[in-house]
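[Automated response] Your request has been received and processed.

Submitted sequence:
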Amino acid sequence: PNAIHNIIFCSQSWRKKSKVVVAFDIHLTPPQSQIEATEMEKTTISHNWLRIKYNHPFKRINFLLFLLIFLSSPRQVLAATSSVCAAENNHLAYINKSNSINSNPAPKSLMRAWMCHGRTHREMVEKLASAGIARSPICKEALLKVDRKNYVLDPEFAYDDAPQPIGYGATISAPHMHAHVLEDLLPPLLQSSKHKTDKQLSILDVGCGSGYLVSVFGRMVEKERMEPKLNKGKVYGIDVIPQLVEMSRKNILKEDGDLLESDTVQVMVGDGWKGYPEGAPYNAIHVGAAAATFPKNLMAQLAVGGVMVIPVGPDGGVQYLYRVERVGDDGGVVGIGGDDSKIGFLEDDFKVYRVLGVRYVPLVRTDD
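Generated structure:
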């Protein structure tokens, strides 16, 4: 009854004769159960993920390899169909009493994810656009302005549509995930610019890692746009690991240093669970690591009409990407004046939408 309805084969590092990495994106029915490729370095069959890495000079072995593993472990693979994410029942995710979590199926464009490799920076972005992942001219333009090779450890693999390790247990996400996030967070930026034409936009990137998405956001809001109307803005990037913050700063300085010089972007050490109140309220928040529960302090820093994209779920368990929209301010908004320490939290101020299954590193919480 739970039939596999789509299989996508994708080869990371397909240019290399000595190494072929195959990622399978298997969408199961019901849509809440998925197996998607991750950055893991060994064959893994778990509740919702499968990734195979195999060194071989001949690519045609990939298909046979997949069949071999699928046939040798059918129970584990098919067991994934019963692993329907019940985040709301297991208290993994925040729930609005009057508006239970809405489950939005993954966009059809993401069915072509993991396939947008490029030999060059432009080719990678063009493939993201032709796949329908980078849809808007604003997002495509920003992606073209920031060369991913400056933000990975091995520039040789910079344009592979797959995650890359950046050290300290962190990764830079696959290009298709970055493009998806940009498209998801552009609408609230446009909406705020339409209604508050003179107000500077504010964006927070939690878990800034190598600094790539901070720079792309920076290119989106480095100047005012008139058609469509998009205000100038500022981007704040925080990471709990000081070495990654320093890496972000060095990477940005390579070719995007003007963003730091103009104060369009700023990176600093910070705890993602606590956010960065100094830049609040935010029109858009991106969280690049999985939180076990929704961080209420971070949600309180969203402006009304603002959107947060965040992965939620236990480390090593079932995780989903959620879209959190702020629709009210009865609980108070951090950063609009007054004593922020007295800001409360009201569930009815937010609507939560489940987007798609993901796998991220955990969002680290400091002890203090």
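Summary generated for your ticket: The chain has a mean pLDDT of 78. The two ends are 49 Å apart (CA to CA).
If you did not submit this request, please reply to this message.
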